[in-house]
Amino acid sequence: MAHDVFSDKQIAAKHQAGFNISVADYLGRIFGYEFIPGPVGGLGITFSSAINQTKFIDHETPFPIIQYNEIDTFDPVFFDLQFPTGNATIYDITPFEFGAWSGSIGAFTPTEWLGTSLSGGVPVNESACVRGFDRAGFLIGTSADTFDAWYIQALSNGTEAQFAKRSSGAGNRIDGTDRSAKRQSAAMDELLQIIPESFSKVFGLNITSSSYAVFPNPFANLSSTSSVVNHSKDLRLVDGSESGQAIPLWGLIQPARGLEFIIAWDDNEDAAPYQWNNGTNLYNSYLAANASKISFLIVLPAVTFVNKNFTHKPVFFGCDPLLTTTRDANGPIILYFADASYSAYTNYSYSQSNRSNRTLDPDWPVCLGCAAIDRSLSKGLGRMNEVVP
To answer: What region holds the PLA2c domain (predicted)?
Structure first.
């Protein structure tokens, strides 16, 4: 597999075409064989091509949005690698467009033409526009690229670059012992050595240049971008959880989207030693929304969140408009689920599971339906007793 991934038909071909390559490309090829249909792990499938699929056109499939964090020039450096801060710019990519709502930019560009050199939103060379840069595997690999975090954590003995998806020291998370921790840690250490060595040996790239996904910057010389992005040739992107918002809510809560109801599943590893959730990621999204004056549910800090038992049952946030950052009903209601031992221990890796009967409250569908239409009802489109008997 490793040999195939680095072959001329895959990562090397992109490098030979003059594009930067990185760990994100490597991960993209691995995930491609797992998740993307078509020959060679879906190598020829682009993200933007989804808009041509019949089921997508007929609205029979989910609308995919992938979230990334940007590595900024001024981000802190540890062991020659940078790690994003809590206020890092969050990028969205959909089959239609790529960009950010705020932060260092406030603009979007068509996904289909990613890789094309632009200045002020216009191609630098109209005869050299690029298509195919948005390979689905590469975009998935970018969303999983936390190599900078793993590397910094390993060399700092876990004291730096903490983020929600860490698990190298989790071990057997059910009982808190380290039965598998040593094996898992050894495997991670081996990968942290093999991957940089491979990029150095095959492509002559050092760890600094191969750790981040590199996108040719389509936002150069735009009035809505920061001075740094304005003059940057490339954007460096990593897993969207690294800035502390592992639940990808930021792009969904933007007023322009107008969403009324969101189901949020939190399966990150907030609290040692068992790696259950404590609401930290939801709280971070609340802080970001409040700072940007975006309507969002008011979330309590982790200690209070856990003490109120919000992690062991489904919780509806935002039902009362007065308990939102803007004290109105302009934001969505969010149904929050934390990874918890509802009916089984789920805080460890497994490949197969079975669901037993009697694990769902018979009134749950009605409860869920009421919450889903609550915002519409508050806008005068009906009354609850007209909908639910």
So the answer is: 1-389
Q: Tell me the residue type at 306.
A: V
Q: Which residues contact 33 (CB under 8 A, 6 or more apart)?
A: 1, 41
Number of Cβ within a 10 Å radius of residue 2: 12
- Around 41, how many Cα atoms within 13 Å sit in the side-chain half-sphere? 23
Nearest alpha carbon to residue 154 among 184, 188, 129: 188
Return the ∠ at Cα 20 (arms to 79 and 239), rounded to 5°. 55
Q: Each residue of 70-98: pLDDT tens digit? A: 999 999 999 999 999 999 999 999 999 99
Rounded to two decimals, the pTM is 0.86
DSSP for 91-111 reads EEE-SSEEEESSTT--EEEEG
Work out the end-to-end distance of the chain between its first and last CA atoms, rounded to an integer number of angstroms: 57
Within 10 A of 337 (CB to CB), how many other CB atoms are there? 16
Side chain identity at 97, as an amino acid letter?
Answer: E
Q: Rounded to 5 degrees, what are φ and ψ at 36?
A: -110, 130
The CATH homologous superfamily to which domain 2-239 belongs is Cytosolic phospholipase A2 catalytic domain (3.40.1090.10)
* Boundaries of every domain in the chain: 2-239, 261-347+359-387
